[in-house]
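Protein of interest.
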Amino acid sequence: MSTGGRASGASSASSADGAGGPRLRTADLALGYRHVRVVDQVNLDLPDGSFTVIVGPNACGKSTLLRGLARLLAPQAGSVLLDGKEIARQPTKAVARRIGLLPQTAQAPAGLSVWDLVSRGRFPHRGLLRRDSAADRAAVARAMDRAGVADLAEHQVLELSGGQRQRVWLAMVLAQETDILLLDEPTTFLDIAHQVELLRLLEHLNAQGTTILAVLHDLNQAARHADHLIAMRDGRIVATGPPSQIVTAALVKDVFGLDCLVAADPVTARPWIIPK
């Protein structure tokens, strides 16, 4: 099996202070819940400026890894490093100005309008008085426009469809204006047209300089839109690299247990998985 890059057990080539290396990386990271270890011995360098997608079967640790990178889950061993420093030792607001997270499921309080929810994404930028500035309001409006929910500003979040809510939550994360964006299954609840629209939006954000790390279940979508893939199985990284280098029939069989053919996407010429 071709890895196309450093798998989880390899040593990191990045310098200890992060100079010249990726801004977000892990060192021998282990994560879990209580006494259950879900992610183990993961050494991950998130390429700066990349659109990276994590793929793998259900319950392989993809969402858990994302939670650890966002500092929502404390390591059982090892560490997460942001700019060469342990993320756990950095101030909450400082981290939130650098990393935005769209979780797999999110709940909004009853009676909250779309504008109010999206404006909560500005919390890392507010001072002690927590008042919205003109810059905050402009950022909220810009984020809503990007996510395609500007016309829903006065609606109650709980009145929206699942797809609309997903785009509203994305707008909230965009309002943080971070340079690293983590998304856990962002196409959930979206129909095919809105899935494509969202992935194109992420490509656009990436082209403007945002480093993106997303979890996707659709391997064909991942291969088409991402420039870097991370394949996981049983809590470990088994392959990393560009889709054209690592997406093979052998990898799909090894990671997903699926017999397939890998052809060229007729539009992009990237790998296209066809189940046998």
About this structure: The first helix runs from residue 62 to 69.
